[in-house]
Amino acid sequence: MGIEMPGIQIRQLKTEEIEMSLRLSSFAFQYTIPQEEWEEAVSGEAPDEVWGGFDGAELVAKVRIRPLHTYLQGRVLKMGGIAAVASWPEYRRGGIVASILVHALAIMREAGQSISFLAPFSFAFYRRYGWETYTDRIKFTVQTELLPRIELTRIPGQVVRVGKDIEILSPIYERYASGFNGMLNRSQDWSEDLLDRKKGQIAIYRDLSGESQGYIHYQVKDRVLFIYELITLNHEAKLGLWRYIANHDSMIKQVVLFAPANEALPFLLDNPRIKQEVEPYFMARIVDIEKLIEQYSFLASIDRKARWSDHKSVCLHIHIKDSYAHWNDGLWELTVHTDGSAKIKRSEELENSASHHQLSCDIQTISTLLMGYRRSSFLYEIGRLQGDEGLMLLLEAIVPERTTFLSDFF
After folding, report:
1. Which residues does 65 contact at the CB level (< 8 Å), separation at least 6?
2. Are 363 and 325 in contact (CB under 8 A)?
3. I need a surface site. Which of 46, 127, 134, 338 has the fewest CB within 10 A?
4. Sheet arrangement for strand 386-387
5. Edge-to-edge strand order for the sheet containing 75-87?
6. What is residue 354's predicted lDDT score, i.e. its pLDDT?
């Protein structure tokens, strides 16, 4: 079901329309661009990434589609990052933003972006159009007196402060990021911009062989040590960098960082009663189910207790409801091979079948399921995934468990 807005034209911005876009953003997101920075802001915009709703010659709403890449089950996928969603007040609640979002789905599909992420101003709003929560993050606040006291003898390597050297930092980040679902596969431009925007210090942990096994990017201000990123490839690096953090105790009152949902920091502390705040963070949406499944890596070995375990492949039917991307809507046959590869194709002949040997859900549910944020059994229990219980258990068995996380923002 598409959305059409009479009198509104949806198209890419032209270079001469960037200033209109910036004025809309500064109003909607409540920030001011100083006059002396205006030209730089205009030149830094990418009009080919912005799709606007125009009432005549006036830009009344817009959406930016950032061409990014993400990790999913260890593979790198093209991802459309939705950002800068805005409209003027007099055009709100009229369906213009919805129209642009639906248009964006077709644009992302054409660009080969099989999945899309966004940071929601309202989870309920974006759920209407197929996005669903895919990751949380935990905000830890650790008072100085509760910082870990780690003996130097437990740390064979050393911590070295370095500059903003992408050649050193990027390989560590990418190895770390590939272990999660939903982290960005950062381009060089993205990494450079990130380091330019965030001030402070960077230190790396090197093991006895001189190999870099982790880094910290942080800033100390007003007696708070705020960690932008704490990236560690093993427990040794984690111990080394936390000892380094604790060495700031004379100049700070507390440490603040955002971490993945599976972070076990409290368990590693003498006193685990530190402040922890769980925050639902980003949402994801499958843009193209066929392309996503072609790129997805299911479990190579299936639970031997399952009755399908002796087969070279397993097959299930799932009916997906997608009101805004018709190419996803319908009954699908999913075939997963024992090497983890899969194909999905339409099962038109079964569309009107009364068979109960299938599953059904909306695009939001299959998105959060394949991202790994929620398991099949949970979604089945709450009614978001329906149908044959045996097929639900099969789906649970073949979707790998992997923590979701995103340390970036856009």
Report:
1. 49, 50, 51, 80, 81, 82, 104, 107, 108, 111, 113
2. yes
3. 46
4. 342-346, 330-337, 313-321, 359-362, 386-387
5. 8-12, 50-55, 58-72, 75-87, 115-118, 283-286, 132-133
6. 47
Enter the tokens of residue 54.
Answer: 């125009």
Please provide the average confidence, as pLDDT, over all residues in the chain: 93
What are the structure tokens assigned to 313, written together?
A: 């492949």
pLDDT tens profile 255-311: 999 999 999 999 989 999 999 999 999 999 999 999 999 999 999 655 544 444 556
**Contacting residues for 96 by C-beta, under 8 A, at least 6 apart:** 5, 8, 53, 60, 61, 87
Q: How many CB atoms lie within 10 A of CB 38?
A: 12
Q: What percent of the chain has pLDDT over 70?
A: 93
**Distance separating alpha carbons of residues 210 and 158, to the nearest angstrom:** 9
Please tell me what DSSP assigns to residue 194. Answer: H
Q: Which residues pair with 321 in a beta bridge?
A: 362
In 111-187, alpha helices (H): 123-127, 166-177
Coil, helix or strand for 251? Answer: coil
Edge-first strand listing for the sheet containing 158-162: 158-162, 201-206, 212-221, 224-232, 254-259, 136-143, 275-280
What span, in angstroms and rounded, lies between the C-alpha atoms of 230 and 239?
A: 12
SS3 241: helix
SS3 250: coil
Task: Compute how many other C-beta atoms are within 10 angstroms of the C-beta atom of residue 31.
Answer: 8
Mean pLDDT of 74-79: 98
pLDDT tens digit sequence for 367-379: 999 999 999 999 9
Distance CA 344, CA 329 (A): 13
Pick 29 or 357 by higher pLDDT. 29
Residues whose CB falls within 8 Å of the CB of residue 378, separated by 6 or more in sequence, listed in order: none
3-state class (DSSP) for residue 256: strand
Place 350 in a pLDDT band, splitting at 50, 70 and 90. Answer: low
Contact between 289 and 320 (Cβ < 8 Å): yes
Residue position matching structure tokens 């039917």: 317
Contact call for residues 228 and 254 (beta carbons, < 8 A)? no
Measured distance between the N- and C-terminal CA atoms of the chain, rounded to whole angstroms? 28
